[in-house]
Amino acid sequence: MSRMNIRISGLGGQGAVTAAHLLAMAANKDGKYSISNPFFGAEKRMAPAESYARIGTERIYDRGELVYPDVIMVFHPQVITMQKSYTAPFYSGIKENGIVIINTSDDLLSEEDHQRLEALNVAVLNHDATKLALEIGKTELSTNMAMIGACAGVTKVVSLEALDGALQDRFGKRYVASGGTATLDEAIKKKYAKKEMLLKANLECITESYKMSSEWAEKQENLNLITV
Amino acid sequence: MNKQVETSDRKIIASKHVKLGQKNQKGQTYTDVNDIFYKAKQTPSFLTGSEVIRAAIKIASVGTSVAYPITPQSEAAALIGELYSEGYLDEYFRGESEFAVMGQCAGAAFGGHRVFTTTAGPGTLRAMENFPMWAGSRLPIQVCVTCRGINSPLSIQPDTLEMHYLLETGMLVWHAETAQDLFDFILKGFIVAEQPDVHVPIATCCDGFFVTHTKDTVELPPDDICLTPYDPYRNPQPVMDMETAPIRMMRDPFVMKSNYISYATHASWQQEIKAAVERSRKHTIPLLDGLIDEHNTDREILVVSSGTAVSQSREAIRLLEQEGIKVGLVKIKTIRPFPYEEVRQATKKAKHIFVPEFNVGGWLAREIKACIPDNERVYAGPHVAGGMTMPSEVIVDEIKKHLGMETAEAVSLG
């Protein structure tokens, strides 16, 4: 039995919940077992919001806050710089040979952080997902797409085809979400003349990010991630 | 006592005022509940618990649903509103508070509708006065309780303390572990609650977020079949108005006076509600495959639990198995009626019984302690509360510590 635990720390409004759901939906389409759930306080933008995707080869019962992740994705620098995460430090509980993907252009970790992560052979990928989102999706609201792409590119836990299918399910059909999510869904749909264009831009964002992170992963010498 | 019922006795009679095979106005075919679950083809879908509530209500032939927003049930309530706009319900509206909602549900049920509503946490407590009122009035209303913290400071996260308040309301109280359970319980719950010899309200409980907001695989029957509607003529008591009991009793001086016969009237009515809850067993056992699920109960160490704590225990048992520690599992599906005899039998061989719970009080452990011999075998824990997650590692650690085994340092840096 193998299982990959993915913890996403972001801020309210960034699509961290949507990202975990998409990863789990894609894994399900790939024929794997998966489960995803969010964790947040009363809804407000820019407040800490976390979500978790568990993907494995056998039925998964575990749910709730993910304490021992293999993969940590940080959607916003403030998660680290302003301690907007549910655990301190944000990488608390990371497993040996894990990976941390941070949406940033600069190194945000202290010397101590680096030492602790190196001791566990945890790789750190600084990945400017918001820049990619602005370039390809023309909106920072696509940051979550770029982060999903990076996760898939490094871990290969889901295929691009399955992610495409999950996108169709989530944005192609009528979807009822809570008030905040529905408002953001509307905001991003308004940016595109047609829904198909939104889906296309999102997939392009995922694909480009996937490529970049795959290339990065190939160059890493000590990457020893769990495979599912 | 009730006659012994086997899980294979799938004989349940639902409504007779429509014919099976007949179609409703949405083109759905009225189908026996057993056929919906045991004959119809089930298709796997990947859904959140809220979406699963929608899927269940779509085929539940519900007459009225009243909504009021409170996390984590708001999405489900909104999705039921969608079903209404599509023509699947006769009535749907927003109440003014949870208290108002439950009163409005009562009105709709008195009028002969199948009624469904959802609430959570502080909402459940705000509505509380209505629950024993529903039960005393023999209204088979279903409320889906998506448990969350009830205390101040506020928490919107899962905590099952509110279920403790429901235990003596006279309602059936079922506790779903997963979205699949929730789907099954909602549909089967209507049928059991509406039996003439039961005819009391039902609370189908699940842990908020862990079920409502979690995407998981659920097997669903097709949506072109549906339950037969509620048949108000199978109500065991006459329609209540000022001239018929028990409302008449409130008006009649002998009951409202402080005298022995008034107390006796009330006491016997409460006993009848309790008896009705017990009588639901014979309908529930075949439909739910028993009030409990058992896995390896011949083992010395057992976990007995309900709701999400069962899921976390399944993972903990997997981890312990890797270390050669063998642990059995009892999952309790119905809290009311409480499966006293089943739990007594299942725990017969156990030397250590662990009861993990998502609440500070440990009410489930108390229920279990109250019904088994040698109850010092029961270890009430681990507990988490206030919306905390219960990692399976915590259950593993607690079991090992209690048994005097060495516990390894967790991999955490935190």
Topology, number of strands of chain B: 16
Strand count, sense and closure of the main sheet of chain B? 7 strands, mixed
- SS-derived structural category of chain B: alpha/beta
Taken from the alpha-carbon principal axes, the silhouette of chain A is: globular
Main beta sheet strand tally, sense and closure of chain A: 6 strands, mixed
CATH architecture of the largest domain in chain B: 3-Layer(aba) Sandwich
How much β-strand is present in the residues of chain A?
Answer: 15-25%
Using CB atoms under 8 Å apart, which protein chain pair has the greatest interface? A-B, 35 and 37 residues
User: What order do the strands of the largest sheet of chain B run in, or round the barrel if closed?
Assistant: 4-3-5-6-8-7-14
Q: Note the quaternary state here.
A: heterodimer
The H-and-E topology of chain A, N to C, reads as: EHEEEHEHEHHHHH
Spans of chain A of 5+ residues with little confidence (pLDDT < 50)? none
Q: Please state the average pLDDT score of chain A.
A: 92
CATH C-level class of the largest domain in chain B is: Alpha Beta
* Overall pLDDT metric of chain B: 92
Instruction: Report the principal-axis shape of chain B.
Output: globular
Explain this structure.
The complex is a heterodimer of chains A (228) and B (414). Chain A contains eight helices and six strands; from the N terminus they run βαβββαβαβααααα. Chain A has a six-stranded mixed beta sheet. By secondary structure, chain A is α/β, with parallel strands linked by helices. Chain A is 43% helix and 18% strand. The relative contact order of chain A is 0.17. With 414 residues, chain B is an alpha/beta fold. Chain B folds into two domains: 206 residues, Rossmann fold; 111 residues, Rossmann fold. Chain B has 16 helices and 16 strands. In chain B, the strands form four sheets. Chain B has a seven-stranded mixed beta sheet with strand order 4-3-5-6-8-7-14, sandwiched between helices. In chain B, β7, α8 and β8 form a beta-alpha-beta unit. In chain B, α13 crosses α16. The N and C termini of chain B lie far apart (54 Å). The interface between A and B is large, with 35 and 37 residues.
